[in-house]
Structures are given as C-alpha cells and as structure tokens.
Design a protein that fits this description.
By secondary structure, this protein is mainly beta. The protein has a single domain (2-59), classed as Ubiquitin-like (UB roll) (Roll), CATH 3.10.20.30. 9% of the residues lie in helices and 31% in strands. The chain is built from one helix and five strands; from the N terminus they run E-E-H-E-E-E. It has one helix spanning 16-21; strands spanning 2-4, 7-9, 30-34, 37-39, 54-59. Strands 2-1-5-3-4 form a five-stranded mixed beta sheet, with no helix packed on it.
C-alpha cells in the first residue's frame, strides 16, 4: 500500500505516471513529493512506487 495525500492506495508497483493516468490530476499543474523528496516531472515515468511509500500531490490553481 502507498499513502497518497494521507489515503492508503493499492498502487505499489506502478510508476507515478501510471498512477496519475488513473486520476483527474493534470501532470502539468502538479508537484509530487515522494517520501519527503520532490520528484521532477521528467522522473515520473521512471519512479516506481513501493509498499510503504508516501506520495503527496499538490495541484496549482490559478485565479484572481
């Protein structure tokens, strides 16, 4: 199990990109932090999520 924004998800073995494909997040408008470290967008395809990982996704919202 991987904790995503505080919720346990059964996504161990997937990459960050594979996880994002199953969500409504726009990869161009988010930042990802894995186990306390920022993950560069260029690494989403190569970063494999493992049991016990903690992934935080932050969306950027514009407005005025």
């Amino acid at each position: 199990m991987v904790r995503v924004n505080g919720t346990e998800c059964d996504i161990a073995g997937k990459t960050i990109s594979q996880y994002l494909e199953t969500t409504s997040y726009d990869p161009k408008r988010i930042a990802a932090e894995l186990n306390g470290d920022i993950v560069f967008k260029s690494q989403y395809d190569a970063t494999l999520l493992k049991d016990g990982d903690s992934l935080e996704i932050v969306s950027f919202v514009g407005g005025g």
